[in-house]
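Bug #77: duplicate submission created two jobs. Keeping one. Sequence:
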Amino acid sequence: MGFEMKPVEVKNVWGHNLEYEIGRIKKFLHDGKYSFASIDTEYPGIIHPIINHYRDYPAQENYQYLKKNVDSLKLIQLGLTLTVSNCNIESDIGKSLVWQFNFQFDLELDQHAPESIEFLKKQKIDFERLKVDGINHAKFARFFLLESGLFSGDYNHHNHSYCPRGSNVTWVTFHGAYDFGFLIKLLKDKPLPDGPDQLKNFIKLIDSYFGKRLYDIKYIMPFHMKIYGGLERAGKVLGIFREVGDAHQAGSDSLLTWRAFLKLSEKFDGDIDDIELYSGVLFGLEDKTYE
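Kept job's structure:
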């Protein structure tokens, strides 16, 4: 028996409606049904390129390239899809909530890889509007961390410090090291960790803000389906279609990431909890890469 396809709306968030949409996210989380958050980011390319494939380098070296790029660049978009837990593709249709946060970005002032900007323009990212109407990064960090209901933690109003205590949701991403790198930089308003224990300290920051219940699909896929490549290719192999928007727009990609995760969970008899073995590991930053 078929099922009715309900359209999914990607809610675009700009400077003027940030507080309102963060309030909506908090309300949906407070209702208790939404316990998974799938994310995707768009950023202005790579200005410190890695020579070979990401998989060919040890985790420490991958992190060094990640740090150089994240510290130098500004986020352009964040896609966020909130979803219910332990459901299959059919029952999930029409229940996902998708936001696309559009950040201030000035091509005349902010570092970028020109070829990446041209590519993103072709994907309908409006850089003229980002310059004028985009979200202030610091304001986003404050509201996202303290007002969205996604995070647990204590805020000290006296010295304006925040002590993270994990997250209220499970996080899903695809090749998520850069996603979490940019978010950690935003939330802490500091460069990523440096020094001899830099990767260890970066992972500790992710654990403290986002918790250990996070899943990177790109890390999981080769263990069970021998799928390699990007999100678009993974979706095709898994038989997942893009319901709304364009590739390399963060909102649309965050929804496709969630659908891919649900499909992948079928390899675990549809029980998301059985994927626990792979939680907390980001592709390229794991202790031992697969062959």
